[in-house]
Structures are given as C-alpha cells and as structure tokens.
Write a structure and sequence with these properties.
This protein is an alpha/beta fold and about 400 residues long. The protein has one domain: 3-Layer(aba) Sandwich (Rossmann fold). A nine-stranded mixed sheet has the order 3-4-5-7-6-8-9-10-11, sandwiched between helices. A two-stranded antiparallel ribbon has the order 1-2. The protein binds zinc ion. The site of zinc ion (ZN) has 6 residues, from helix 7.
Length: about 400
Amino acid sequence: MRRIAIAVSLIALCCTENVRGEIQTLYRGECFSEAEAAKKLEDFAAQFHTRDEWQARAEHIRHGILSGLKLARLPPPCPLKPIRHSLHKEDGYTVENVAFESLPGFWVTGNLYLPVEPKAPMPGVLCPHGHLADNRMVEQTQKRCAALARMGAAVFAYDMVGYGESTPVDHHHSETARLQTYNSMRVVDYLLSLGNVDETRLAVTGESGGGTQTFLLAAVDPRIDLSVPVVMVSAHFYGGCSCESGMPIHKNAERETNNVEIAASFAPKPQLVISDGADWTKNVPQVEFPYMQRVYRLFDAEGNVENAHLANEQHDYGPSKRAAMYRFVAKHFKLDLKEVQNSAGAIDESFAKVHPREELLAFPPAKPRPAYAVADGDEVIMLLDRRK
Ligand SMILES: [Zn+2]
C-alpha cells in the first residue's frame, strides 16, 4: 500500500515541462481518463494493420525511447570489475553480494542468486524492483529470486538508482531514467560475463516501477528473450516518477505512444503481463491485453502473450503473481517447476531463506566502495556522454 501512496502523490504532474531550457512534452502519471486512454488506443490501432506496418511503428517506438532517454548513442562499455562476496548456501540455491561498474567509478549494487548445481548454459533473469526502500532485499524480492535460482536460473536483483546501496545519484535526478535503463543493459552484460548463462534465454521481471524498467529494457535491448512486467502496463497511467516518465519517451514531434505499445513492441517474444484489481492495471483484461494480443496476432504468435489478472489482489509482487511468473518462465525456458512445487503441485517457497539486510550488502561497512568512486551525481550522469 505504501508504494501506491508514493505513486499517487506523483500522478498529477503531466504534460509540458521545461528542462534545461528545452520544451519537452512529458506524459507523466495519470494524464488521461480511462475513457480517453481507451480511445487513444483505438486511434493507435487505426494506424497499423499488417505486420510490416506494426514493425515500422515498433521501430519508431524503440527509437523514441532511446532518443528520449539520450541513449541513442551509448558510451563505450567500461570493464565491469565485479566485486562478489559473502556466499550464502541455502536449500537448492546460493546468494552472493555483488557490485559492478556500469560506468567508471559508479557501481550497480545487487545480489546474485544461482542454483546449487548450475546446468550450463542456464537462463539469466534480471530482477529490477519498484519504489520501496531496500526493495531488492524485501521478502517478495528475495523469494522470487531464490525460487528462480532453484529452478535453474542465474538471477540478479539490483537496486534502483538512488535506492538501497545505489549512490550517489539522487532518484529524482532529471536523468534517472537514462541511467537506470543503462544500468539494466549493463546487468545483461554482467550476467553474460558469468560464462555459463544462455544468451538465448534472458528474462526480465519486476513490479510497479520495476515493471516500467522491465518493459523499457525489453523494448530497447534485443538480448532480452522473455518479459514479465508486473502491475504496471496501463493505457491511462504513464508512471508517476522521474525514473519512469521524467524524460520524453512517450511523445515527440513525430509520434505519440504509451506503455501498452512499449510493452507490445516486444512481440513476438514471450511476455506475461501480470495485473490486479486495485491499481491502474485493473482494466488490463478488457483494454490493454486485447491490444497486445492484436499485435502478437500479426506475428501468428498470440500464444506467446498471456495475462495473469488477479482481480481481488493489490499492487505488489505477491505469492500468486510470483506463481504465475514461475509457471510462465518454466514453460518457455524449459526449467524444472517441480523444484518449487509441493507434492500437490502447488508453488511452495518455504525453502527460501529471507536474509536480513546487513547480510546482503554489496558494500558493508567492512568493505566500502573503492576510493575512486565518483562522488557527485551529476558527474556520474556526465559519464553517459563519454564517447571514448
Ligand atoms: Zn522512480
């Protein structure tokens, strides 16, 4: 409920802002009524009728996100120089504390979960999170990562910019969305650098603000093979935070789109949209999901997109939402669901150990970040402009 309160407090800011002297049109928060948003989807749908027409539109959507996030040109990838320590051996999986450099002197902080006996090559799963303090370490995140690892995947849970151990960039910096999306791309690099991760089975899944990170990465990074955005795909809500809608990814002089189309641009690859009855995803079965099915149908791939709608549930990544995700990932990545099922076939996460925060820190007091860490948030953002 706390996360809903945070989001609702931010939904009134929309439309035109002046950033660094530039006029930008930002679609932010709840810019449209539900009826207006449904009509907007109808208008979008009238603009494509064939696979080729959609693919051209999807390419515009991708380009619009990358240029809106100032990521059309990426800096040369720096060495990751991973720091990895504190191996915890649990029932069927392990968890370690990890930091790596996405930019020189700036670290992505997280936890790597692995099967006890990895069967190489194994799938990789990125687990971004939503707006809750220390969310990478809360019970719902630890359980989903533990279960995926026990099923046979390499799983990385990582802090949002400015959350948990992520310093020094403030979460509400005007270019957080840029850095956060770039960090996710570098998490893909990190998982592939492990040497035993299957580049044809890479997934991303997160809830709320982590759902936004999920469909943005899936849209712009062709290495992602499967996507599970949770409680976030909505026609009338564009994300209320600067990390979601603080840069002009939805509207520019040439085109206009919304998060439903951004998620649909992942077609025809496997995608499970998880929604609930108590937030901006309440209409998904009637409004957003049929739109996505129409796109997938153009690829003769309607079976690759599913919706798990929990009408009596709320805005979280709770047990039944996780269960739907496990089944979807297991089906498409050929993982062993029995590892997380009890004898009756129900999902059972009782094997998962929920560690206290201090046991999961990448930079605990005894292992602080290296002295060459960039200390100023603006300087970190400027590193994204490096061309050499
Ligand atoms: Zn945010």
